[in-house]
Amino acid sequence: MIYLIKFAYGFLLLPGIFVVLLGAAGIWLWIKRSKSQAIGAFAFALLLYLCSIGAISDGIMRNLEHGYAPPSDVAGDVIVVLGGGATDDTPDIDGEGNLYGSAGNRLLAAARLYRKTGLPILFSGGKVFADTGNEAEIAKRQLIGLQVPADRILVENRSLNTAQNAEFTGELLKNHHLTKPILVTSAFHMKRSVLDFRKEGIAVVPYPVDYKVSLRASYSLNKWSPSSSAMDSISTCLKEYIGIMAAKLLHNK
């Protein structure tokens, strides 16, 4: 019973309620003999529904995430972590500012890799918008809070996107004579990141983290209920695929 209730909730919340309203509008238009308009409403409702269910979004995300597998043997001389957004003035345990969910997962993975390898951590990410935090500076504070020594942390705090992550990180790597970076970022972000670093002439060891979907596909009832998270997932994938195409075009020039 609880799963049926959860399934129904999807049609009462955003974006499911719009699917219901569009479907209802289609029925009303059909009754009013405005069949062409009714078909348009039904088509839009179907498109919105397909873009908001996990049965679709999970498959797209899974294809994007599993382009690389974490290496069984971590061989490199520095752990490079890419940012993914941060708040500016939100309260934290030892200061202000917090990394967004994906960036926080990347940071945690890097700290665990540091404990395993002892390699220095280079965090890349700047202050992207006026109301967001400087990702690298927040990350450094949080890494110190996770018992990573300050002298084992490098910060690249100027970059505003993945291409700049690669460009400015490359400069720091050269300055510190580091040549074998282990690249840590979300699995969905890894393909684009590798291309951007390759464009800068940097060969990285991909270490994907922050997986959003399980490796094994599931088509249980909850995967067919509309959800904002599924729409967000598809939007994330679309952004990545556009970025991948752009990176390939620039790399081939």
Automatic annotation (TrEMBL):
GO terms for biological process: Gram-negative-bacterium-type cell wall biogenesis; peptidoglycan metabolic process. Residues 77-243 form the DUF218 domain. Keywords: Membrane, Transmembrane, Transmembrane helix. It comes from the Bacteria. Signal peptide: none annotated. The chain crosses the membrane at residues 7-31, 37-56. One of its GO terms (cellular component) is plasma membrane. Pfam families: DUF218. PANTHER family: ENVELOPE BIOGENESIS FACTOR ELYC, INNER MEMBRANE PROTEIN, PROBABLE PERMEASE. This is YdcF family protein. It comes from Paenibacillus sacheonensis.
